[in-house]
Design goal:
Layout: E1 33-37, H1 56-62, E2 67-69, E3 75-77, E4 80-85, E5 91-96, H2 110-122, E6 135-142, E7 145-150, H3 158-162, H4 170-173, E8 193-199, E9 203-208, E10 219-225, H5 230-239, H6 251-257, E11 263-277, H7 287-296, H8 299-306, E12 310-311, H9 334-342, E13 348-353, H10 357-372, E14 377-382, H11 384-390, E15 402-407, H12 410-413, H13 418-422, H14 439-450, H15 454-471, E16 474-486, E17 527-528
Parallel strand pairs: 1-10, 13-14, 13-15
Antiparallel strand pairs: 2-3, 4-5, 4-17, 5-7, 6-7, 8-9, 9-10, 11-15, 11-16, 12-16
Helix pairs in contact: 7-9, 14-15
């Protein structure tokens, strides 16, 4: 299978630490809103777990995960009623919620859970397969219980895969012919919306599922026109042709739409932008050259030029991630960089996507910084497909020197993914586009993935981040600010999820009283989800979004985060 990079996908961009103002929530007695229209930047295939590319948030309207992140980014029960773990952390018991059914009628059972894990293990997927490698087997003692045995404790298992991997229906997927990505026709999941119409290249239409087990969705129909330019989506919002734009609005556009009829919901995003190096060939096979370029870059200046961005001076994770380094890891020292950069015999070429003004501007500032520190550098814009080939995201040999690239929100939710991004073993690190190899990092990443003690795990994470900052396979530049425009007169129930954004099924399916966080490493208290509230599922607290992001003009997780692959 062709590999897709974590950075390219999924989900609508950016997230917030704070909810959309509660005064805007829809009254429970008002009944469902008939129609909400939101654009998407490209046609994204049939939106199954094996055919989506950028549309993780749309796909998860149709498919449910066992857990789902809340407003603070914490996994909570969703398709699961409760989750608990054995004292050694190697056995995770999932009790399914009552009343969950597939959209074609049959109940969701533990056999579907077991089938999903075995299917993903046997059918490589760029995002999900790495999340299930620790699973030894899944037992199904009864239709409502799945017991997942792990080869070793996985403290991040609640977030990835339990809050990230969509459960698929065994009765439709079992026995698919070899090479077939998904069943024919429109997707069938257990989620709150069913995709009822897809006109390739033009639109999607989702209809609320009657009798959804977590309550009636607050919007009856969601229409998704395909619009591949940010300016077009903003104009459509201003004209009233769409009711929300799932893109991060640049500062100028944010001011333009911040009117009496359009609100802007703002917050932080775990979606990052970085300078990626190719360590396989000169000049970036030498750590001193990578370090010199890093020292030449003023991250604060780039963040200021980007507007509401957050400088990534604390490393690869967002500074507000609970796993982030408490201390700055970036050092600005152009004078120290000058002798190394001045000695280079050829200019550095920095690649940027030609459809993303934000990344192009970041690339321009990187080139300017290198030149200002005595080096030579040029900027080259490429179509996205060419850029992906150049960095080797298609599985081919990388040909780039340096590129402006996206860092996935999933890493800031749980750092176990760091080993998959920078580990030395290609089989377990499919997203190591830089070609980084470090035994010390591999050891730290292994401890991040397997250490159950929270303090020791945070210490291992900081060690791994410190090694990345010292070896500089990438230079994290900034994390985008999140700003989403929407029309409150049409629908004011949008909710933010920390790190991701507002395009999420929690914006449409009502609140539940808080449940204990899903903590597979703390098994003494089971995680239980209370029954639906009396309002029928409406009313919107700060919710959640899958990891992923829609950035600039072309790329769309709630996050996620989010990586997908389209094969049909």
């Amino acid at each position: 299978m062709t590999r897709r990079g974590l950075a390219a996908v999924l989900l609508v961009v950016v997230a917030s630490m704070a909810p959309v103002p509660p005064a805007g929530s829809q009254p429970a007695a008002a009944g469902p809103v008939p129609l909400v229209r939101l654009p998407f930047p490209q046609d994204d295939g049939t939106l199954t777990p094996y055919t989506f590319e950028l549309g993780y948030p749309l796909m998860t309207l149709v498919y449910d995960t066992l857990l789902w992140r809340d407003a603070d980014g914490v996994p909570r029960p969703w398709l699961a009623r409760s989750v608990d773990t054995s004292p050694d952390g190697r056995k995770v018991t999932v009790h399914l919620a009552d009343g969950a059914r597939w959209q074609d009628g049959p109940p969701v059972t533990s056999a579907d859970v077991a089938f999903t894990f075995s299917w993903v293990a046997a059918h490589p997927h760029p995002r999900f397969s790495g999340e299930v490698v620790a699973v030894e087997r899944v037992d199904t003692p009864d239709p409502g219980t799945a017991v997942i045995s792990l080869r070793q404790a996985q403290p991040g298992f609640a977030d990835q895969p339990l809050a990230d991997l969509p459960i698929i229906p065994r009765h439709l997927w079992e026995g698919l012919p070899t090479g077939k990505a998904a069943p024919d026709g429109l997707p069938v999941g257990s989620g709150p919306y069913r995709l009822v119409d897809h006109v390739a290249g033009q639109r999607y239409r989702f209809e609320a599922v009657a009798g959804y087990f977590r309550g009636a969705p607050a919007v009856s129909t969601i229409e998704v026109p395909v619009m591949n330019k940010v300016d077009d989506t903003v104009h459509a919002l201003e004209r009233g042709d769409v009711d929300m734009v799932p893109v991060n609005l640049p500062e100028a556009l944010k001011k333009r739409v911040d009117t009496l009829s359009v609100k802007v919901a703002e917050g932080d995003s775990y979606l990052g932008t970085a300078l990626l190096f190719n360590l396989r060939s000169p000049p970036f096979d030498r750590v001193e050259v990578r370090r010199a370029v890093a020292r030449a870059i003023d991250l604060g200046r780039i963040a200021r030029v980007e507007g509401d961005a957050v400088a990534a001076d604390h490393g690869y994770l967002h500074p507000r991630s609970p796993f982030a380094s408490p201390d700055p890891l970036h050092s600005l020292d152009p004078a120290a960089a000058r002798p190394v950069l001045a000695a280079l015999t050829a200019p550095i070429t920095v690649l940027v996507p030609d459809n993303d003004r934000s990344k192009a501007e970041a690339g321009r500032l990187v080139v300017q910084a290198v030149i200002g520190a005595g080096g030579a550098a040029t900027l080259r814009k490429l179509p996205r497909a060419e850029l992906e080939r150049a960095v080797g995201e298609d599985g081919g040999a990388p040909t780039f020197e340096a590129a402006i690239w996206t860092t996935p929100p999933l890493a800031s939710y749980d750092p176990a993914i760091l080993g998959r991004l920078f580990g030395s073993d290609p089989a377990s690190a499919p997203f190591n586009l830089a070609g980084y190899h470090s035994a010390a990092f591999d050891d730290a990443a292994r401890r991040v993935a397997t250490t159950s003690d929270p303090a020791a795990r945070k210490a291992a994470t900081r060690e791994a981040l410190g090694l990345l900052a010292a070896d500089d396979p990438v230079v994290p530049l900034y994390f985008a600010g999140g700003a989403f425009g929407y029309r409150p007169a049409v629908y004011d129930g949008w909710v933010f999820v920390r790190g991701s954004g507002i395009l999420d099924k929690r914006s449409f399916v009502g609140p539940r009283p808080a449940a204990a966080p899903a903590t597979p490493t703390r098994p003494t208290t089971p995680i239980a989800a209370p029954p639906p509230d009396a309002s029928g599922g409406r009313g919107f607290p700060a919710g959640l979004l899958a990891a992923g992001a829609l950035a600039g003009a072309a790329v769309l997780a709630g996050a996620a985060v989010v990586v997908g692959r389209r094969r049909s």
